[in-house]
Amino acid sequence: MTEPGEEARWIVDQLPGEPAAFGSVGRRWSRRGGVLVRARFLEMRATHTFQDHGPVLDTVLRIHPADGTPPFEAARRLTVPLDYLALLHRTKDVVLQAHPDGESFVIDWARTSLLAGTTTARVIAPDGRELPLSGSPDVIWSLMNLLASHGLSNPTPVLDLRHHRMSTVAGTLLEMVPAAP
């Protein structure tokens, strides 16, 4: 959406929903073997109910387990944020937090938004270089999984490797990020 004298901006930024981020991780969830998995909406049907950030929809998801077992489908009634609905022309994929027992899944809307590209993800290297990750969903996905497996939360779209808490994984993270031009 553009207006005279203003830059182009995403209208999705003004819609209710969680801001895009690398996501939060519960240390207990991570230590017990919780993982991130990808899923895809196969169906979305209106229920004529609206809550907090969006409509309640009857959905069918195809879930791709992280352990390599065959994908399966799950029907759920979900409140889908408006900012995600605005992205349906770009993606129908979502990020799920899988419970360690593999029996329950929760949609992680912050990670889903980042993976969909609503905000430019960036990595700040220990030497201060800024490495943009726009157009690199596979790299972003790998970074999310590495952070989750180490129990590291990063509630923003900027992954700053200068922080002390990131020192244990900084080298591995930098190997995953393509070099800046």
Explain what you see.
With 181 residues, the protein is an alpha+beta fold. It is 20% helix and 30% strand. The chain has 5 helices and 8 strands; from the N terminus they run H-E-E-E-H-E-E-H-E-E-H-E-H. The strands form 2 sheets. It has a 5-stranded antiparallel beta sheet. Strands 7-6-8 form a 3-stranded mixed beta sheet, with no helix packed on it. Helix 3 runs antiparallel to helix 4. The mean pLDDT is 85.
Which SSEs are present, and which pair or pack?
Blueprint lengths: L26 H5 L3 E17 L2 E11 L7 E8 L2 H4 L7 E6 L6 E3 L1 H8 L5 E3 L5 E3 L4 H13 L8 E3 L9 H7 L5
Parallel strand pairs: 6-8
Antiparallel strand pairs: 1-2, 1-4, 2-3, 4-5, 6-7
Helix pairs in contact: 3-4
Radius of gyration: 17 Å
Give the strand order, joined by hyphens, for the main sheet: 3-2-1-4-5
- Kindly, what is the distance between the CA atoms of the first and last residues, rounded to a whole number of angstroms? 29 Å
General shape:
globular
Uncertain regions: pLDDT < 50 for 5+ in a row?
none
Q: Strand share of the residues?
A: 25-35%
* Beta-strand segment tally: 8
SSE series: HEEEHEEHEEHEH
User: What is the residue-averaged pLDDT?
Assistant: 85
Largest sheet: 5 strands, antiparallel
Task: Classify the secondary structure makeup into a structural class.
Answer: alpha+beta
Q: Which percent bin holds the helix content?
A: 10-25%
Helix tally?
A: 5
Which features characterize this protein?
181 residues; alpha+beta; five-stranded antiparallel sheet; three-stranded mixed sheet; 8 strands; 20% helix; globular
